[in-house]
């Protein structure tokens, strides 16, 4: 009897622990419907146009020279209201700002380090607070990027480069002498996260978790600390898998990820402002990538790297506006939709409306002869080109309806003027909720 009672109590404790660690649908609903977010990498690295903190890691710049860039980090033309006006206009639903990269430089007035834009950079200002205020004025969610590693902190290891002498001057450690170096660093992380919690972010975007194990970072405790402060906050997967959603980057997943996810991508080859990097992705590639991602149930987190003065490069603005223009034309297929058809039904990305009564086919290229859709059991009411409104003729061909084999739906090709220069969307309206044929085919034993 005692053994059974112990097992019952243990099972209830396990269920409670599991429910605390698992994201609820309510917490993730906004994220799953967001479709587009803007990633902002802004820091000292833009002064010399070098690779973020990694330029130190790869010993392309000394720690001393890296930090010296703060003398020219002026943010003299920083206008977060203009940033957010642009992001909102193009249809972005959330933003993620690098509050502190691996270099340890904070964009807010942290009292746990003097390596901040308030105390160490030419700007001498808190850059995070006005950004948060601008976000809160709009129907957008706030994401804060925070690097778990701090390569400037005297208690942090490992680092691949030689730090400037006496980095302790940047990090006050009064009353912590009895702690080990690592205990002091973990305490420092919790302290800074406590400061960021005051901004009530909707999302934490962690990075750098690969440098230490979850037990060392205290990843589980960090997650619970954030949830205790804000039960609705969500966390990316870079907290040693203690997060709520996956974050593949730079290469679009070939296989549809399970659960909630986002794809983060640069416009050129660098995250921060890198003026010599002119290898910008064409607008067509950015729009196609966006379509591929949302058709697989994910969000695109598209990166920009503002200049040290706070302005955004024209090449980046041009691409943001082009994506926004395409989204505005096709917003019916973008928002309030979910991942589309499994592979094999249509040779291209697809989206499905939330009520499963509309199907959206994405044409990357100009179709020839006819457009083919396979395995659709539900009757089709109409097919039209989403932007132009052109109605397209369609007919079923082949199959054996009496044997539940639907054959193909053959759709006529849109007129040239209806084809979008980037991605054309066809809206298929169904008479009822979508039912798919997923069989392997068989002999038709009775012909009608």
Automatic annotation (TrEMBL):
Q: Which UniProt keywords apply?
A: Glycosidase, Hydrolase, Signal
EC numbers on record: 3.2.1.51
Does the record's keyword annotation contain Hydrolase? yes
Q: Which SUPFAM superfamilies match?
A: (Trans)glycosidases
Domain Glycoside hydrolase family 29 N-terminal, which positions? 28-330
Do you know which Pfam families this protein is assigned to?
A: Alpha_L_fucos
Enzyme class per UniProt: hydrolase
Q: Does the keyword Signal apply?
A: yes
Q: What does this protein do?
A: Alpha-L-fucosidase is responsible for hydrolyzing the alpha-1,6-linked fucose joined to the reducing-end N-acetylglucosamine of the carbohydrate moieties of glycoproteins.
Q: What does the sequence similarity comment in the record state about its family?
A: Belongs to the glycosyl hydrolase 29 family.
Question: This protein is called what?
Answer: alpha-L-fucosidase
The scientific name of the source species is Capnocytophaga stomatis
């Amino acid at each position: 009897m005692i053994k059974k009672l112990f097992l019952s109590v243990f099972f209830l404790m396990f269920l409670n622990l599991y429910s605390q660690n698992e994201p609820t649908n309510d917490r993730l609903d906004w994220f799953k419907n967001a479709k587009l977010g803007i990633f902002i990498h802004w820091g000292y690295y833009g002064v010399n146009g070098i690779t973020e903190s990694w330029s130190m890691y790869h010993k392309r710049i000394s720690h001393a020279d890296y930090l010296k860039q703060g003398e020219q980090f002026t943010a003299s033309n920083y206008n977060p209201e203009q940033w957010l006006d642009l992001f909102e206009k193009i249809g972005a639903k959330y933003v993620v700002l690098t509050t502190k990269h691996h270099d340890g430089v904070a964009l807010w007035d942290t009292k746990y380090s003097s390596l901040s834009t308030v105390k160490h950079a030419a700007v001498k200002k808190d850059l995070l607070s006005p950004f948060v205020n601008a976000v809160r004025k709009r129907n957008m969610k706030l994401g804060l990027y925070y690097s778990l590693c701090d390569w400037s902190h005297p208690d942090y290891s490992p680092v691949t480069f030689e730090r400037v002498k006496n980095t302790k001057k940047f990090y006050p450690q009064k009353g912590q002498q009895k702690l080990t170096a690592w205990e002091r660093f973990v305490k420092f992380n919790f302290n800074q996260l406590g400061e960021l919690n005051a901004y009530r972010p909707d999302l934490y975007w962690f990075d750098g978790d690969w440098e230490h194990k979850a037990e060392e970072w205290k990843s589980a405790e960090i997650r619970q600390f954030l949830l205790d402060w804000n039960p609705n906050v969500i966390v990316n997967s870079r907290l040693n898998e203690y997060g709520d959603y996956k974050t593949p980057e730079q290469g679009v997943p070939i296989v549809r990820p399970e659960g909630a996810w986002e794809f983060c991508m640069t416009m050129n080859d660098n995250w921060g402002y890198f003026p010599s990097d002119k290898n910008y992705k064409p607008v067509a590639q950015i729009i196609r990538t966006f379509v591929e991602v949302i058709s697989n149930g994910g969000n695109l987190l598209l990166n920009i790297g503002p200049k040290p003065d706070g302005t955004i490069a024209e090449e980046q603005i041009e691409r943001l506006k082009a994506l926004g223009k395409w989204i505005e034309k096709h917003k019916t297929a973008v928002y309030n939709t979910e991942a589309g058809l499994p592979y094999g039904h249509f040779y291209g990305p697809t989206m499905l409306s939330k009520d499963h009564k509309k199907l959206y086919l994405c044409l990357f290229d100009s179709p020839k002869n006819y457009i083919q859709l396979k395995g659709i059991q539900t009757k089709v009411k109409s097919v039209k080109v989403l932007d132009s409104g052109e109605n397209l003729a369609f007919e079923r061909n082949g199959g054996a309806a009496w044997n539940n084999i639907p054959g193909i739906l053959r759709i006529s090709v849109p007129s040239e003027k209806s084809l979008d220069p980037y991605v054309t969307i066809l809206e298929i309206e169904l008479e009822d909720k979508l039912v798919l044929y997923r069989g392997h085919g068989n002999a038709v034993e009775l012909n009608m």
